[in-house]
Amino acid sequence: MDRYLVTGGRPLHGRVAINGAKNSALKLMAAALLAEGTTTLRSVPRIADVSTMGRVLERLGCAVAFTDGAMEIDVPSNIASEAPYDLVRQMRASIIVLGPLLARTGRARVAMPGGCNIGSRKIDLHLKGLERMGVEVSYDHGYLNARSPGLEGATITLDFPSVGATENLLMAAVLAKGTTVIDNAAREPEIADLAEMLQAMGAHISGAGTPTIEIEGVAGLKPAHHDVVPDRIEAATYLIAGAATCGDVTASGARADHLDLVLAKLADAGCDVDAGSGFVRVALSGRPRAVDFVTLPYPGFPTDLQPQMMVLLSLADGTSIATENVFESRFMFVDELLRMGADIRTEGHHAVIRGRPGLQAAPVRSPDIRAGAALVIAGLVADGVTEIGGVEYIDRGYEDFEGKLSVLGAEIERRDRRAPAGLEA
Ligand code: EPZ
Prior knowledge:
Number of domains: 2
Helix content: 25-40%
Low-confidence stretches: 421-425
Oligomer: single chain
Bound molecules: ligand EPZ
Number of strands: 24
């Protein structure tokens, strides 16, 4: 288990290149299963979750390789249909193979995804929608078995605009018989990115990115080439780090139109925000102003930026209120931030953040991907050297996090946990 040693007090300055979005790439990889042949994905981030999804695809019979910067997924005519526990346990997003496997083979055996540190991560909306398409579901030994004699188009209204449920149903519907309508669908940019690749494969989809998506099933799809949409969460993580350290950071490759509300909140907090084609820049000198924010499904404020924003606001000149509506346990990391001197009180879905002039270094531990990145941001600001454990979580979602931060002027070192402190390897 590696750890980071982060020395605080150095403003971040400069330009950071943004990768393709983790939360699109994983689904695009699963979508490749829908067509025999070789699908090519560009701008796939080199992160642990992508490697895990690659191993899932290999277990299903595919060959996955990076060739001069692009990921090639070679899908055979017959694919297996079991996603094993040892991989699903590592990454609950593996459940996203359910829709493609049912569409291609009419069956799927997927280990039930465990919960994780931000909440229960249920899949009832995925299953309710698939059952409306004629899928029969049973369970044994921690596995979900799904069977379908042939997927039928259906009209499905989601109780909640679940990203994963929208994606699984979208990928099941493209090869179903007849028309499927998904109402109250998720509108995240990653959904439109998935729909774009499915259309390139020959799918008939309209309305992706709106609350109502209509899919006309087709008999078969062909492999495609696709460029993964830029990672809006990665981009905003670096922009918020720049603001928190009183620096000036440009995220190149980022799309400002995917960050409207986030950039508006940073401007409300006193940041200078500038954006053009292919870049977004945020600068702040002095303490941020207090700002309230509420996480909601897109286009609301992204839950994946809640921890990072909490760190920024823990330095504000005033009191902010953060409301987390998407995951029930996403304030777990606050206890770690309190150890660094933040003044935050959580009450159910709300957190009252009383800004302080600074934070202090302390040994902390990252409970999940985004909280880990947020604790690094806290370390970049804190007085002293902060040790952050659980770097393997950060590796799941950020390519070369310490390298990119170092280029921006951060003093951050990665240490192997196995070496006893003081006797560094
Ligand atoms: C995706 O998770 C992302 N992960 C998450 O990013 C992101 O936070 C989330 O969407 C919301 O934007 C990937 O894309 C791999 P949901 P997902 O289904 O699909 C409840 C990160 O750090 N729900 O929209 O799991 C669920 O419990 C990760 O990159 C049900 O109740 O999100 C949660 O409270 C973290 N039943 C809420 O909906 C269901 O069947 C949002 O879940 C499905 C979801």
